Amino acid sequence: MISDAINTLSAFLGRRDIPKLTKEALRSAYGFSQADVMVLFGGSIIAGGDVLAQAIKNNIAKTYVIVGGVGHTTQALRDTVQKLYPDIPTEGKPEAEIFQAYLQYRYSLKADYLETKSTHCGNNITNLLKLLESNAVPCENIILCQDATMQLRMCATLRKYRPDFRIINFASYRAQITPDSIPGMWPIDRFVSLLLGEIKRLADTPEGYGPNGKNFLAHVDIPKKVEEACEDLLAHGFRPR
User: Residues in the chain with pLDDT < 70?
Assistant: First the structure.
């Protein structure tokens, strides 16, 4: 079924290594109750801001960072925020500044640092690492929060540059094929095309982003059931984005 194929890809790409962002969940999984750093990436839909706000309220990390300049998802974020919260300025703003304004407007909270120059997943990570180093932020373990379609790629990119980090994935949402209740959610056709595009990028082939291809990220094993789900969706006319 198409729905099963979509949900298979969504679950594979949208990793959450702990069930919720609480001290208890961290302690149970990793033996510590507070991460060094939590990062929200601006490629996320607006629901990522709600996740970061809850994490800050739960005191889940020592330092909070929002990473995101202007890229292919920026205008969608601007449009969503402007529609839902017209008092928040978005025109010409990078993703990190929009999310920071959202946090302050809705929750009276803010991240400790913003990175506003990155334009894609690769320099999301390299600029993040430069920011942490230049501000002498201690980091041995880190929570990554990105749009569910790109969560696994973000993790694999960081593993390429810092394999010594303990990386904790927490995708900004978990979506089934009727994700209408998720704030700012992609239209379903675009969601499926984003999922298919990610699998194509993650493949460790000459055309992919892995070490045997463009070498943008660490190797990712793609299970057979995920490959079969992609074939099913392609056969039904969906195309990668």
Answer: 176-182
